[in-house]
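Quarterly update from the structural biology core.
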Amino acid sequence: MTDHQTEASVQLARIDEATDYIRTHSDQRPLLGIVLGTGLGALVGDIEIDASLDYEHLPHFPTSTVESHSGRLILGSLEGRSVVAMQGRFHYYEGYTMQQITFPIRVMQRLGIETLIVSNACGGMNPSYRRGDLMRIDDHINLLGDNPLCGPNLDEFGPRFPDMSEPYDRQLGALADRVALEAGIDLHVGVYVSVAGPNLETRAEYRFLRAIGADVVGMSTVPEVIAARHGDTRVLGISIVTDECFPDTLEPVDVETIIRVAGEAEPKLTELIRRTVSELDKADAPVKAS
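Predicted structure, tokenized:
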């Protein structure tokens, strides 16, 4: 057995160990996974909880070091659908490897999810965006300098060179757009760029990121989406714009403000996700190319 085969076997064994542990605490067989980002944990209040497991008790799970991330895996039911939700995620800037960051996604896939909803707090660079706005992620740019698929390929999940022409599912996106319109929720559609952090960006960096096509910037999400798509899991991504990153009028911002703004906008996000989940059956048919 080669070193790569050994490493892949170790990764798969750890994923299976965590999955088996979770199954001893819940009979849920979730088809939907949810990742709740910075200051965005209130959706858990709408879940009929079957099991709440602290990350520190889950085999091989990292432990969140970010104060605004609760660090719990929730299994239960949302709008009649069996779900598994991460109340808090892991980031590259915390010192974790890409494989550690995406480990929970692999476990979710082992548990049986077919759809993943990811959320995050981000900085808005599109001049049409304002603090507290929501944006559906239509595409992304990976500037983290790393990729969770580097190293041995986990053949049981997906191919060595997965296609990424549609990282965010068009049918799910169309459903979210319609639900937002019906609920009176303004929902932008744009491109998310992920950077390593943890510092916020300079004026020159904001200009560069905007010039290459990004509408918002954050420090998460992309690794989870890459792992999800590698495993053929459909993805819907929603961002909350927590600060306005316009170079010519840039003002200092701190994490307390970011968390506060995320919390103020969270009811809109929760309503959007809850309504979208209730109508997921309507996103099952494939979208025809225009």
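The two ends are 47 Å apart (CA to CA).
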